[in-house]
Design a protein that fits this description.
The chain is an alpha/beta fold. The protein is about 20% helix and about 35% strand. It has one domain (about 5-155): 60s Ribosomal Protein L30, Chain: A, CATH 3.30.1330.200. It has two helices and eleven strands.
Length: about 160
């Protein structure tokens, strides 16, 4: 039986072997990287495209700009060029019914991830982006396969849509 790891928002993982990495996405985006010849890969689960940061701050996986830097570093540390990896993108949905502005976060995350992969020269081989609801994702590091299961959007309580005096 393979090892299973659950990655929370802002988390990341890089490795290989008999391991399955899982996460749940709403407006967040996950980038998976897979190197078929070396059978190594990684993923990040970011919440926002970027933040203002100075050079002394540690990388924070909640931000796509920093998560992709971490993935690049992990690929390099394992003797891989990120441009030789295959990428898959997931998430960026409207996960909450009635949440104003929530969709724009997902769209910003999607645009960032797509632009970032293009700029890095990484081939995007598959994606499941946008829409409504959440996604449960499982990335199998023994073969690079990714499975996705969709769930319905969550309804916000009616009181969240009203101004309370």
């Amino acid at each position: 039986m393979s090892e299973k790891l659950f990655i929370k928002p802002g988390g990341w993982f890089f490795g290989g072997g008999d391991c399955q990495v899982e996460t749940v996405l709403g407006s967040c985006v996950t980038i998976t990287l897979w190197h078929p010849a070396h059978k190594l890969g990684g993923l990040c689960h970011f919440m926002l495209p970027n933040r203002l940061r100075d050079s002394v701050q540690r990388l924070d996986g909640r931000y796509g700009e920093e998560a992709i830097l971490w993935l690049k570093g992990q690929a390099w540390a394992n003797g891989l060029d990120i441009r030789d990896c295959e990428a898959k993108l997931f998430g960026g949905a409207r996960a909450l019914v009635g949440a104003q502005g929530h969709q724009s976060v997902g769209l910003r995350n999607i645009r960032f991830a797509e632009q970032c992969l293009r700029a890095e020269g990484v081939a995007l081989v598959s994606s499941d982006l946008g829409g409504q609801g959440h996604r449960y994702l499982r990335f199998d590091l023994s073969n690079g396969d990714v499975w996705v299961r969709h769930g319905a959007p969550l309804a916000l309580p009616a009181s969240w849509g009203r101004t309370v005096q």
